[in-house]
Amino acid sequence: xxxxxLMKIYKNLNIKEEELKLIINAHERVEFxxxxxxxxxxxxxxxxxxxxxxLARAFTYDFKGDExxxxxxxxxEILIEVSSLFRRIPAQENLQALSDGVxxxxxxxxxxxxxxxxxxxxxxxxxxMSEQLFSLKQRHIDSVSLSASDRYLKLLTHKTQVIQQASxxxxxxxxxxxxxxxxxxRKEILSK
Amino acid sequence: xxxxxLMKIYKNLNIKEEELKLIINAHERVEFxxxxxxxxxxxxxxxxxxxxxxLARAFTYDFKGDExxxxxxxxxEILIEVSSLFRRIPAQENLQALSDGVxxxxxxxxxxxxxxxxxxxxxxxxxxMSEQLFSLKQRHIDSVSLSASDRYLKLLTHKTQVIQQASxxxxxxxxxxxxxxxxxxRKEILSK
DNA sequence: TAGATTTCTTGTCTTATGGCAAGTAGGTTT
DNA sequence: AAACCTACTTGCCATAAGACAAGAAATCTA
Lengths: 192, 192
Description:
Radius of gyration of chain A: 18 Å
Strand order of the largest sheet of chain A: 1-8-3-6
Largest interface: A-B, 36 and 36 residues
CATH architecture of the domain at 7-121 in chain A: Sandwich
Oligomer: homodimer
């Protein structure tokens, strides 16, 4: 069990071995293709995914109707639309694959069963959500206190996979700038 | 029980009347003064607060050491440092009163007991966190797609209490602009 | 292989916002 | 009343990033 890909996220679970098995077995291995939508805005989310191989993004639209990439989800991370899954409301974001890959899918009902039975799993879920909130706040601080090029540099050092696999326009909207600006920033950085 | 201030947030709880009483009684009424810190960066959070009367803010510092107001918490909202309380790590944010007021405080251990016993309360907590994530994402979209003055106008219509009670510099850093710029934006808006 | 589409780059010009500094107006303290 | 803060305003100038448009390069497709 300790060599299972899912252990990358469930390692800190404070539970018995058999409960852990139950959780791991509740996931189903799925392969995905570049461009594929895991979830479409307006639909009801019915599962979340652990990305073993590949890269995905979450995106939505601003008031002008332009796409905004709100998050990149890389290997060993969880691809999920929290609001839709946990509040049972239509998704506000799209979840899309940016490369071919492999993921582990757990459906809501199964998740929910275990969530209510296992307080260790429950705590894990809350801690995971806390981390999400934390990192979103951190990103907000970066976005108001760092220049666009510093934000890019930070991404460059912390999320190598994104820089390598995501196209410029997605990275630009994630950073809150235009693709034109990002192209110039890249040029500027290379010339140093 | 239905007239209790705390019912403003716990109204959608899917639980029995006696459980609800238990939850409400777990809160203690506290009065607070303008400027007072509920929680200081570096400390361990040990409670959260429901604000009945008054206004508070969460703030931290950017890499230059400048204060950034990350959130305003108004009446009928919850004042909390999620990461510190649920992950048992030192607080990254300060929580401060911006006016005199009244709050209801619940300490972590008491909360935790009920949280594990009552699946209705547990669900409520998860839904609350989901909403937080949702609104943070929404703010991010606003911050990259709206002009500073549109962001101010949005705050003006949606969070009247903040405009009325928070000082310009706090609002400015919340919006991600300088106080100078906000002053000009206000002038511009008034002239229309 | 040619055509079409998407991705990225570059040029020119505009504009929103920041940096700094000085000034005003209220409120508080001594 | 004088001195002192703090909150806010205003002026001047600098600059990061956007808008628009054209081109180059890469990728997909027929």
